[in-house]
Write a structure and sequence with these properties.
Elements: E1 13-16, H1 26-53, H2 60-89, E2 93-95, H3 96-129, H4 134-137, H5 140-158, H6 160-166, E3 175-176, H7 183-187, H8 195-227, H9 233-266, H10 269-284, H11 286-304
Parallel strand pairs: 1-3
Antiparallel strand pairs: 1-2
Length: about 300
């Protein structure tokens, strides 16, 4: 009789099912996803090229925008091509190592994106509330340090995730009911109690997200307070428009990311199957990120003028 307590992974391959319940439509679903990916790559690369070529754009808001564009490129490239292989070529199998690498990139770069949102909020706070010291406070050196801190935070907090998964035995199933490797989807396949591991992952995600949200909200409360004190009505309208578009993007980003994470954690499968096809493109599709970059570029220019 086979031993009941397995300590080693019995196979080096997992199988991604795709979007549960919509397997027969994978070929058609792949078309808009491919279009989104092409627009995302072209849009974000264009932003990087324009900012690099125009020295007048080497300012904090555009430098943070470049960091966000790089993050978006990595996020989309770590998910979209593999998803298209699944949708169009039926490539369901993914090696355990590739699964862990994809999971690390998804979680760590999502945390980085949240951090760059916070950095942009800080930049807008300084630019509006203390404009005379904006250039002296946010120097290129400080911008580089802020960017490095965001990257190191994402790597430091999510490096333990693949290490924790390597230690687990997988003797239930190797089928992941998803289009990509996500921590909660993989950890549920282990045949041992993973309560502590799940709590760690949930605590890290909640801690990073809630802290960033709190300080972003605080920044914009202070910004709005300063905006209402502006003497010009036109300036107030432009500032409110900038804040409004940014807040909408923040709400979409954090609410959908939290929804996706929590549905994996608590296992609300029916709700997940109904909402995932609509929310997943909004959360992970870089078209929104490219559009956000263009809107932010235009609105910030208007606010400065």
């Amino acid at each position: 009789m086979a031993p009941a307590n397995k300590s080693k992974l019995t196979t080096t391959t997992f199988m991604l099912t795709g979007i549960p319940g919509l397997e027969h439509m994978h070929v058609w679903i792949g078309i808009p996803f491919c279009s989104m990916y092409v627009v995302a790559v072209v849009g974000n690369v264009t932003i990087l090229a324009v900012v690099r070529a125009e020295r007048s754009l080497h300012e904090p808001m555009f430098l943070f925008l470049c960091m966000l564009s790089v993050t978006d490129l990595v996020l989309s490239t770590s998910t979209l091509p593999r998803m298209l292989c699944l949708f169009w070529l039926g490539a369901h199998d993914i090696s355990f190592e590739a699964c862990l690498v994809q999971m690390f990139f998804i979680h760590s770069f999502t945390a980085m994106e949240s951090g760059f949102f916070l950095a942009m909020a800080i930049d807008r706070y300084v630019a509006i509330c203390d404009p005379l010291r904006h250039a002296t406070i946010l120097t290129h050196s400080r911008i580089a340090k802020m960017g490095a801190a965001v990257v190191l935070r994402g790597v430091a907090f999510f490096s333990p995730h693949p290490i924790l998964l390597v230690q687990l035995p997988y003797c239930k199933t190797h089928i992941i009911a998803h289009t990509y490797c996500e921590f909660m989807a993989v950890v549920k396949l282990a045949c041992v109690d993973t309560g502590a591991t799940k709590r760690y992952s949930l605590s890290v995600a909640f801690g990073i997200g809630s802290c960033d949200c709190f300080f972003i909200a605080l920044s914009y409360v202070l910004i709005l307070r300063a905006v209402f004190l502006l003497p010009s009505r036109e300036a107030r309208v432009k500032a409110r428009g900038t804040c409004g578009s940014y807040v909408c993007v923040i709400v979409v980003f954090y609410s959908t990311a939290a929804f996706t994470f929590l549905t994996h954690h608590f296992g609300h499968t029916n709700m997940y199957l109904l909402v995932l096809p609509f929310l997943n493109p909004i959360v992970y599709d870089p078209v929104l990120n490219s559009r956000r970059a263009k809107v932010s570029l235009l609105s910030w220019n208007c606010l400065k003028n």
